[in-house]
Amino acid sequence: MVNYYDILKVSPKATGTEIKSAYRRLARKLHPDKNQGSEETALKFAEIAEAYEVLGNPKERIKYDQRMADARFRSNGFADSFIDSANPHARRWRQMVYEKRYNDIIDRMIAEERKEAMAFQKVVYPLVALILGCLLTTALRPRIFFDSDILGRIIIVSLFIVGIIHIIGRVRDGFERFTQPDDDIHESILDDNERKEKPVSRLAAAAAVIGAILLALGIGLVIGYQFISPDSRFPLFSENLKPEFLFYPPIVTFFVDMMHTIASRFER
Questions:
Q1: What share of the chain is helix, strand, coil (3-state, %, to 5)?
Q2: What is the total count of domains within the chain?
Q3: Are 30 and 9 in contact (CB under 8 A)?
Q4: Domain C-terminal end among 36, 68, 84
Q5: What Å distances lie between residue 153 and 22, 158, 204, CA to CA?
Q6: Which of 22, 85, 117, 188 has its CA 20 to 30 A from that of 52?
Q7: DSSP string of 213-237?
Q8: Same structural domain for residues 133 and 261?
Q9: What is the per-residue pLDDT for 126?
Q10: 8 Å CB contact between 141 and 245
Q11: How far apart are CA 41 and CA 48, in angstroms?
Q12: Cβ-based neighbour number of residue 108 at 10 Å
């Protein structure tokens, strides 16, 4: 029986994301357009496409894993004796073994889906917090930095740097996992299901994020100058927007994401 995991060079316990990444990597390496139409390369390309067609589909992967488990189980030499025996105890034992394998496969798929959902949340929460932070900062116009002593300013700058690094890491991971590269090959190597799952290119995603941030800044300015009067603000907020407002959205994002991470661990 053909081992699709070996063809894609991944572990049988690989996640769906790891399988997709392996397929992308091999497809770009073996694509006929990059190998002058080499017949040998074309055959290998067909093999990885076939492997991904099965392993990239959760339902087909479950069926394939069951066939692989049966093949390994029967290769131990007991297929013609105990495994195929009409003895009711043997049949019961065989059924328990199959159920255990099937449950293991289902558990793995559920764990993978949960992991994928958590990865999505790790991207969404920071971006939402960043957008809201931009809106609130321009609306309220805080002046905490310039009113603080040297220690307070050091703390704010340090938190700002940590927040920027944190946002960059989250965005990078999100782009790698949930968007498709902007190149000329991906449309010809990915099937319809793959394109449907990741319809957004990295350039379009980046433009959407930047646009949302700019829109939030604009809405915040309108709210701040039109609807928030000086009399309704606390002393920590200024009548005019000061350059220090750039410090606060990354700090807000960092704290919101940390709270979400802590809450997620308690839920487990």
A1: 80, 0, 20
A2: 2
A3: no
A4: 84
A5: 46, 8, 36
A6: 117
A7: HHHHHHHHHHHHHHH--GGGS-TTB
A8: yes
A9: 93
A10: yes
A11: 11
A12: 16
- Are 47 and 3 within 8 A, CB to CB? no
Q: Which two tokens stand for residue 32?
A: 């006929």
DSSP state of 32: G
Q: pLDDT for 11-63, tens place per residue?
A: 888 888 788 888 888 888 887 666 666 778 888 888 998 999 999 888 888 88
Give the CATH number of the domain where residue 28 resides.
1.10.287.110
Tokens of 233: 């603000």
Determine, yes or no, domain membership for 103.
Answer: no
User: Which residue, among 43, 70, 237, 66, has the nearest Cα to 137 in the 3D structure?
Assistant: 237
183 confidence band (pLDDT: 50, 70, 90): low
**Amino acid making up residue 78:** F
Q: Which of 15-19, 212-216, 229-233 has the highest mean pLDDT?
A: 212-216
More confidently predicted of 229 and 149: 149
Where are any strands of DSSP class E within 14-113? none
Residues paired with 237 in a beta bridge:
142
Same domain, 131 and 236: yes
Distances (CA, A) of 115 to 1, 9, 24, 107: 30, 22, 21, 12
pLDDT in tens, 49-98: 899 999 988 888 888 887 887 776 666 554 445 445 556 666 676 667 66
Show the domain range for 191.
116-267
Q: Which of 237, 223, 249, 241 is nearest to 134 (CA)?
A: 249
91, part of any domain: no
pLDDT of residue 253: 95
State the average pLDDT over residues 199-227. Answer: 90
